[in-house]
Design goal:
This protein is an alpha/beta fold. Helices cover about 45% and strands about 10% of the residues. It has a 6-stranded parallel sheet with strand order 6-2-1-7-8-9, with helices on both faces. The chain has a 3-stranded antiparallel sheet with strand order 3-5-4. The chain is globular and about 85 Å long. The mean pLDDT is about 95.
Length: about 350
């Protein structure tokens, strides 16, 4: 880092030009495609270039550091239509490899993932078809991809089987429901999927805004059905998720977070630090004041809109959510479409882990 004293009054000066080697600046290098043999070769080379390419390379370095740190418990947060965009197996691979230890997601992302995990498909959208025609035909559009309403009916049958078997005396919450759905998939479906992999690896999956999803609506409809049949309704308590998430993270030596998009999953996960601080400061509890040591996020949202999704980790440090870099924190921020950045970064890191 170059630090100079500035004592001139705004006029131009007779500059003393520095030597970048003596100042220990890092050089950037041309990306030579003739030397690329693997995904990791490409991502590593991109890290020596500029702009978003460099961010992808540096993001891979951060994820690799998290994966290699045996003391680090990694929370992955998911927003956006990642399963409709066919990224579900990338996420499942991270779970199966033991790189991701907990997931916090939107409910829609998990519901659309159930479509894929149970053998159904999503389809390319033909831009010549109007949204009115799509509506009448029962095709729900997610930008350039279609989710047939029939798929969601199929998801409801899977969720209904889990809820029919639920003990009405046991209060439900998202991580318990997702575990039960994962167990159902483990027993009855041969395909891979996030919830199935999470169940098999003991990875909890939290959905903070559960009612804002197909599965949340399925839960509500199931309770209405129970009322009609004279059966006891199921109770849902979101604070069980909050407490279990906090309890889980408090047991860890170090924490990392890998965020796709932003939204509720990102903020809900990051508020762990402030929650623990408030329990200590306001509640008088004797607790270690833990924060995230690592952070990697892939999201093209710009910071200047002022929203949480685009806010940088430096801002989150001010809230007590992250360890500052000069105290050991390490972060990567990749401003790119996650359908491009996620598979590149994950594939590169998996290659690195297999080598060493």
């Amino acid at each position: 880092m170059i630090e100079l004293k500035h004592e001139h009054d705004g006029a131009g000066i007779d500059r003393k030009l520095h030597n970048p080697v003596e100042d220990k600046l890092e050089a950037v290098y041309p990306l030579d495609v003739n030397k690329i043999r693997t995904v990791n070769d490409l991502v590593t080379a991109m890290g020596q270039t500029a702009f978003s390419g460099r961010q992808v390379g540096e993001g891979a370095d951060v994820l690799e550091a998290m994966a290699r740190d045996k003391d680090c418990f990694v929370v992955m947060t998911l927003a956006g239509a990642m399963t409709v965009a066919k990224q579900g197996l990338v996420i499942a691979e991270l779970v199966e490899r033991g790189i991701v230890n907990a997931i916090v997601s939107t409910g829609a992302l998990m519901a659309h993932g159930l479509v894929e995990a149970t053998g159904k498909s999503h389809y390319k959208y033909d831009w010549k078809t109007s949204d009115v025609d799509l509506y009448e035909a029962g095709y729900n559009r997610v930008y350039d991809t279609l989710e047939p309403e029939e798929n969601l009916n199929h998801v409801e049958t899977v969720v209904a089987k889990v809820l029919d078997a639920w003990d009405a005396n046991e209060v439900a919450c998202s991580h318990k429901l997702n575990r039960a759905i994962g167990e159902h998939l483990h027993k009855h479906d041969a395909g891979r999927g996030i919830l199935k992999s999470a169940y098999e690896k003991g990875v909890p999956v939290f959905v903070p805004a559960f009612t804002d999803s197909e599965m949340g609506l399925d839960f509500a409809l199931h309770n209405r059905k129970r009322r009609k049949e004279g059966r006891p309704t199921l109770r849902y308590e979101p604070f069980e998720d909050l407490e279990y998430f906090a309890e889980t993270l408090l047991k860890q030596k170090k924490l990392g977070i890998f965020t796709i998009g932003g939204g509720v999953p990102r903020n809900w996960s990051q508020q762990f630090g402030p929650f623990i601080e408030l329990r200590h400061r306001r509640g008088g509890e004797d607790l270690p004041l833990k924060r995230y040591h690592y952070g990697l996020r892939i999201c093209p949202e710009p910071v200047y809109w002022g929203g949480l999704s685009g806010s940088p980790y430096s801002e989150a440090i001010s809230w007590g959510k992250f360890v500052p870099p000069d105290e050991g924190g390490r972060f990567g921020e990749v401003f790119i479409d996650a359908t491009v950045g996620l598979p590149l970064i994950v594939a590169a890191v998996l290659e690195r882990l297999e080598k060493k």
